[in-house]
Amino acid sequence: MFHMLQTLEREPQEDFTNQIFDASPASSRLPFDGSTVSKRENPHKYLLYKPTFDQLYTFLSSGFKELPSGGATLIYISSDGCVCNSNQSADIAFGFGGVVTNSRREPDYTNKAKWQGNTRDIHCLHPGDLYPFTRKPLFIIVDSDNSSAFQEWPNLFGQPLVCLLSPEQLPSTFQGQKQKGNLFTLFLHSVLTAFCYVCDISKISISLWEKCQAHVDRFTAEASKLFTRSSSLDHCFMQFFGDDFLRVLLLRFIFCYVVLRLHRAFSGQQFYPLSFPRIPQEEILDNLALQKIVLELASTLEVGMLFHTTEELN
Q: From CA 87, how far away is CA 38, in angstroms rounded?
């Protein structure tokens, strides 16, 4: 929560030509009309720590009500997964479980001797619980070991809807190491810090940091070009990509994917982040130019041995 709060509180750079990728998302207002805004206010935020379901729904409803015209709701969820034990596997709204928002035990209002149906955790947030809020543009981030429960969404109201999902597993060498928070959120907060973390680099000089930041800037510039030129990218992404702050989150998501895809310790789909809708694999996520920049960054930090070469991946 602290990392995401920092990310959302940073003031955007007004010089968009040179420093746009140093800015972090700080607004929920989207320029759907094609207009540009030179200065944005920080968004109104609700920070909920282990909320009960009724508390969570109350604040979501309030945010939905207060959303201005041309705005979007950003929901960030970091929580343990709640796997559903029912046989309703075809139910994408509730059949795959969700995330636990609170571990409080509620009174049992049913007579178990008479009630034989399957009961579920009242404080488990399912994808279907968020369906009512897709009536307006919605951008969701889920950092959980059951994030895949949120990977399929019916577009019921035709509004822009994007969901960024964390890897559900970490390699054994990284399990139990959460001093810096969850890895996926760390990438969204500071890609260079996260890169150093997966390379076991704890200290770095200012001059070397600046050299590495130049690689990151090249990556985000190239990834931005791929987004805008893609012919197969879902239109929902482009609706959010027009906002300078949400764009940063999307570009950091791509950086996270490419780094973990190349890292030798992260070998397997369970270690990679997902998105809904899916970002084109060959055109963007597996782009050779992006992979080359990441490998050059690794070479600058002298950790190239930790990463696959593009030839090895191919």
A: 52
69-84 residue pLDDT tens:
889 999 999 999 988 7
- When computed from its CA atoms, the radius of gyration of the chain, rounded to whole angstroms, is 20
**DSSP class per residue in 5-45:** HHHHHSPPPS-HHHHGGG------B--TTS---S--PPPP-
In the chain the beta strands, taken as DSSP E runs, fall at 73-78, 81-82, 98-100, 124-125, 138-143, 161-165, 274-276
What whole-number percentage of the chain has pLDDT above 90? 61
**pLDDT-based confidence at residue 236 (cuts at 50, 70, 90):** very high
Cβ proximity of 237 and 250 under 8 Å: yes
Whole-angstrom distance, CA of residue 274 vs CA of residue 148 = 8
- Other Cβ atoms less than 10 A from the Cβ of 243: the count is 24
- Hey, is 183 helix, strand or coil? helix
Percent helix, percent strand, percent coil in the chain, to nearest 5: 45, 10, 45
Helix (H), strand (E) counts: the chain: 10, 7
Q: Alpha-carbon dihedral of residues 257, 263, 269, 275, nearest 10 degrees?
A: -10
- Summarize pLDDT for 168-215 with one digit per residue, the tens: 998 888 766 555 678 999 999 999 999 999 999 989 999 999 999 999
Backbone angles phi, psi at 189, to 5 degrees: -85, -50
- pLDDT score, position 34: 41
pLDDT digits (tens, 9 = 90+) for 143-163: 999 999 999 999 899 999 999
- CB atoms under 10 Å from CB of 274, counted, come to 20
Q: pTM for this one?
A: 0.85
CB 150 within 8 A of CB 276: yes
CB-neighbour burial class of residue 264 (10 A; exposed 0-12, middle 13-18, buried 19+): exposed
